[in-house]
Amino acid sequence: MYALNLSEDNRILSVTYEQYAAPGMPVVENIPDGDISNWKFVDRHYSYDPLPEPPTPDPTVDDIINALLGVEE
Amino acid sequence: MADKRIQDLQAASSVQTNDLFVLEQAGAAKKLTGQILINDLATYLDGHGGISNIIYAPPVSPSLDGTLTITMADETQYDVVVKNGRGISGISWATSGTSGDGQIHTGTISYNDGTTSSVQIKDGVKGNTGAQTYVYIKWSANYPQSNSDMTNSPNQYIGICATTQSTAPTSYTSYSWYQYKGAKGDTGDSITGVSQTSTSGLVDTYTVYASDTPISTFNVTNGRGIASFVQTSGTHAAGTTDIYTITYNDGDVSTISVYNGANGLGSVSTVSGIQADGNGDVPQVVSGNGAPTTATVGQTNQLYYDLNNGNMYYCAGETAGSYSWLSANASVSVDSALSSSSENPVQNKVITAKVGTASLNTTATNLSGAVNELKAAIPAPQTSGTPANLGTAARGSAITYSRSDHVHNLPSGLVPTGGNTGQVLAKSSGSDYALTWKDASSVYVGASAPSDPAVDIWLDTDEPGMSAVSSVNGETGTVVLDASDVGAMGEWALLWTNASPASSFAAQTIGIDLSGYDAVYFLLNVSNTTWGQTRRFGGVCMKGDTYTASYVNGEKSVFLREVTVSASGVAFAAGYSGTTASGGSAVPYQIYGIKGVQ
Fold first, then answer.
1. Which residues of A touch B153 (CB under 8 A)?
2. Does the structure's ipTM exceed the value 0.90?
3. What is the Cα–Cα distance from B210 to B189, expressed in whole angstroms?
């Protein structure tokens, strides 16, 4: 059994085992596979709501220099 | 009324329809109403007897005038000109300019009198761009009654709002709500049967029937079985390896290797140098009546038992068919013949065993036991009288007692005589076996030197670390440490474990009752997808403090997360990889509570 730590909009922030559950945490038998932060828990049901991928960081100065010199990391 | 002359009557100014006149018509006096008179007079006064027909002649182009011909009863005709209006016979259009932006349309009107006229219609100029509209969608488990009923995840009801606002309205009244999920449908037909309807390779197809009507099919892929198992290399030779190839029914192939063990060396041929006989038995003892001779066949180390007197002999060897039998200087005899039929042939026999000049004999034996089991209950040995002297034993060899009161003197000088109670043996010199009785070492504990010269060891309590312990964890006297004593010196307890450590971990608070703890020890995970490894690092944070845990890997990348501990739990800030926030960096793994830390 697992206990879920939910955000205000019911997104799963983290999950622990039942013996470590704090009062008020929903207790469930199973948890979704993969990254649980892509799921919400509403009315005792899981709904898939993936977070947007983080934006690709801009290349650094080193990246630009390496690209100009043809250096591959 | 007196008769008056018509000229004397009052004169009428007109004829009324209801006037009455008298006339003679066809010799009869009649009355005549004014209406009849008026009608007849009108007819006669027209002069033509009335209109017999009226004929209209339409106009002849290009004239627009028509002629109305009235024919009277007396065939008198009157023509009346009817002047018609100018009508439109056709309209044609021409367009100029840009469509939708002030374009001009010119129309040419043709009239039925051959004349024309024109008219222009100008389109309006292009208008300004309309305001951008937005469509927002919200959801609700029930028909919303408040703003908090709205969610962003699909649910029973859907709310739609079309607006020009660039942000979604927060009031549920701004949305039009509709039931998204329909009512529960009717119960479907129950399944009446499932049967296999076809097969292809490893895949079997099954059809599901409802009320005997097929409604669906599904496929079942069977497991991989072995189609063949064939030796493909090797000769089974000892010490070599054979290869076998397994072919599966899905076409896949695998191989296994089998090492052939070395050949055996054959059955046992000798035991303690004695060869087996024709039956494969290796007799260790042969027997006969009388002493063995040089002709008695035997094998080296084999024993011979003289049935006549119980003497034992052993075979020393064989030379050219001559066997050497030597006395084993031992014998085993029984007071009467052994039973050849009983399972316990020595039952109730007196057995005497002699080794050299010594002998050991028993009283009548009492053997019992099940098949293949032999138990002997030998009567208690002699408990009085002087036992047989077994001679002296060499110093250092083992000596066995047969009676509890039997005292076997140790060789003189081995243990010195004398000695007092409590004394111990000690070496008196460096020579072998030089022993003496001596008092045990005495120990004195005190702050000043003992006055007794016999004291061997003095524990000076004035020396550092030598003072007596007055108490342990508040307990005096004989103190037995238990869990409560260990707990007072610092107790750890596991309070939380991340059940999905591979998941992203956003900033959050883990609710834990830390009122009974002074600090926490936490572990964080750092995963390296290149190495495929997970490293852990952690730290101790006192309650009420904030701690920043960081880890630097071999590539000089820094992973960190800030931790704040309070009486109600542990708050983890966002994880960072360098300066970039990353939920997958420094993921919390475990939290331990620590007591007794100041």
1. 10, 40, 42, 47, 49
2. no
3. 6
Render pLDDT for B62-109 as a digit per residue (tens, 0 to 9).
777 888 888 887 888 888 887 777 778 888 999 988 886 788 889 998
Q: Which two tokens stand for residue B581?
A: 């926030």
Report the amino acid identity of residue A66.
N
Radius of gyration over every alpha carbon of chain B, rounded to an integer in angstroms: 70
The average confidence (pLDDT) of chain B is 79
pLDDT in tens, B169-212: 999 999 999 988 777 777 777 788 888 999 887 788 999 888 77
| Two structure tokens written together for B590 | 């475990």
* pLDDT of res. B17: 85
Which of left, alpha, beta for B159 (phi over 0: left; psi -120 to 50: alpha)? beta
Are residues B280 and B266 in contact, defined by beta-carbon separation less than 8 angstroms?
no
Q: How far is CA B133 from the centre of its chain?
A: 46
Asked if the model's pLDDT at residue B387 lies above 60, the reply is: no
Nearby residues of B330 by Cβ (< 8 Å), 6 or more positions away: B311, B312, B353, B354, B355, B356
Q: Assess B506–A contact: CB distance below 8 Å, yes or no.
A: yes
Give the H/E segment covering residue B485: helix B483-488
Beta carbons of B191 and B209 less than 8 angstroms apart: yes
Shortest alpha-carbon distance between residue A14 and chain B (Å): 7
Which of B153, B496, B506 has the CB atom closest to A42's CB atom?
B153
pLDDT of residue B374: 44
Cα Rg, chain A, nearest whole Å: 20
- Beta-carbon contacts below 8 Å between A and B: 66
Shortest Cα distance, chain B CAs vs residue A17, angstroms: 6
The tokens describing B155, both together, are: 């649910």
Residue B574, pLDDT > 80, answer: yes
Give yes or no for a contact between B104 and B98, defined as CB atoms under 8 angstroms apart.
no
Bond from prior residue into B62 cis (ω within 30 degrees of 0): yes
CA dihedral B270, B274, B276, B282 (to 10 degrees): -100
Q: A35, B512: Cβ pair inside 8 Å?
A: no
The CA distance from A35 to the nearest CA of chain B, in Å, is 4
B306 vs B411, which has greater pLDDT?
B306
Please give the residue of chain B at the shortest CA–CA distance from A23. B511
Question: Maximum distance among all alpha carbons in chain A?
Answer: 59
Residue of A nearest to B154 (CA): A47
- Which residues in chain B have Cβ-Cβ distances shorter than 8 Å to A25? 511
Q: Tens of pLDDT along B446-477?
A: 788 888 766 667 777 777 655 556 676 777 77
As a whole number, mean pLDDT of residues B308-324 equals 88
Residues in B closer than 8 angstroms to A10, CB to CB, are 151, 153
Site from A5, A16, A43 to mutate, B interface, most B CB atoms within 10 angstroms: A16
